[in-house]
Specification:
By secondary structure, the protein is of the alpha+beta class. The chain has 7 helices and 8 strands; from the N terminus they run βαββββααβααββαα. The longest helix is centred in the first third of the chain and has 14 residues, at about 10-20.
Amino acid sequence: MTRFEDAPEYVISLVDQIQTTYFPELARAKIKVLYDLKQRKSKGNFVLGRIQRTNEVVRHLTREEARSEVGYDYLLYLDKAVFETVDEKDRTRIIRHELRHCFYDLETRSTPYKLVGHDVEDFKAEIEINKEDPFWRERVAAVAASLYDTETGPGAVVGEEDED
């Protein structure tokens, strides 16, 4: 069984919409969206999504699909089971959080797309946007726990991050 699959068109459209609405500096960034079919944890927390820059090999191999001479700039991975279970608002939050890691460096011409870490445990902008539902992550983590660990139920912490 494969670990990843292409995200469906409605997810790609949602990513495009969020990219356009919240991140105009990323308007030209090419983002490949994949579903991760395997549960991931990091430091005891469920990984709902993650984003990474592509390397030269991936950029080369994805030129045709990305319709770009340089291929995709980023790979966005979303936990399929969780993403398809939560509502539209939480889907938007997950994607928006991951896109906050993206940074366009005006001074670097060859590979201007970079990644940045968190301002705090989250991003200050995300805390402000989500102030009406500050515990959304815990709620979504409980959904993940219920999907992946039927023995211990929602909110359970299950092991450490799996090694690939």
